[in-house]
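Re: weekly structure request thread

Next one in the queue (229 aa):
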Amino acid sequence: MSRSARLLQLLDTLRRARQPQTGPQLAQDLGISLRTLYRDIATLRGQGADILGDPGLGFEMRPGFLLPPLMFNADELEALLLGAQWASRQADPQLASAAQAAMERICTALPLELRIAVDTSGLLVPSHEGPPQPETWQAALRRAIRAEHKVVLHYEDQHGQLTQRTVWPFAMAYFERARVLSAWCELRQGFRHFRADRVQDLQDLGLRYPDTRQQLITRWLAETGYSLD
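Done, posted below.
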């Protein structure tokens, strides 16, 4: 295993761990010596990884650390490129701009060979008919999902009737020709799905809904039988 691959594996192990991991356990899991482990942790800290702990106490990584772009391999970079291209066509302008900025930030840190490979990639995300136009409220809805806020939807149902719903949004699916919001509806006292193109207006109430987003997703998956795999 190359050193870069080993460092990436160590990062993934720390990121997924739910509690501090001891040095000997990490070394055994990775198949390396304890001395090599301590050296790798020092290297990752030097690259900006916020790894807490010391020998004898265990190690854990605080959330929010972005993997160094130099550690992406060619397949991973192509996957990121395709994802960024797709987001630029399907998402709202703010998210599309963020996807482009993220790729540019990654590319500036790449060695020249990989940077050229990304710039000249033959992988494309064509759109024959053009993607659906993003709704003006879409960025506000993404922020509400992230903050776990209640929102008021002014919604036109399939029969053309206008209704007002207070919902707890927790997910939004980006299909090729439509976007669908998943939320708990206070009016119906159950999970409902709302087509984005039928939402006439949206108001973020700035109030946290009582359950967490994770709890809502877990219940929604159990009730609907969907899978996020």
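The chain has a mean pLDDT of 81. The radius of gyration is 22 Å.
Next request, please.
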